[in-house]
Model the fold of this input.
Amino acid sequence: MVAARARAVLATLWIGSLWTIGYIVAPTLFATLQDRMLAGTIAGRMFQIEAWLTIACAVLLAILVARAGEAYEGRQRKQLLIIIGLMLACTLVSHFSIQPLMAEIKATAAPGSVMTADVQTSFGRLHGLSSALYLLQSVLGLVLVLKLYRVR
Done:
């Protein structure tokens, strides 16, 4: 019973924060703040915190699912672990591969200046890829929640 509650809390924290930051907080920052650089900096920091939260929740939830005993049949457990792994992979690729490239592009642009068209295109492509991974992770989060609560 304690393990089931721990799985529920972890899934709620993880998926809830993922959806809240990505689909409520970040868009609100850009809609509210006139300084888009400031909005981007704040959103970036929040996504960084979310990435570390994802790593912690994914590892802990995977351990709890793997040790769930008879709560899940073998196939269901395997599916849950694959979904958790895919969600974690989305974060690792985005946070440790794409985000550093985006930061490098921003750092090379002169402070207070406008990015050249080539730099904007590169940044836009990376941002689009990062957004697509986030959307994929969000959908996988929905699938995870739906599958997680098919407990016998």
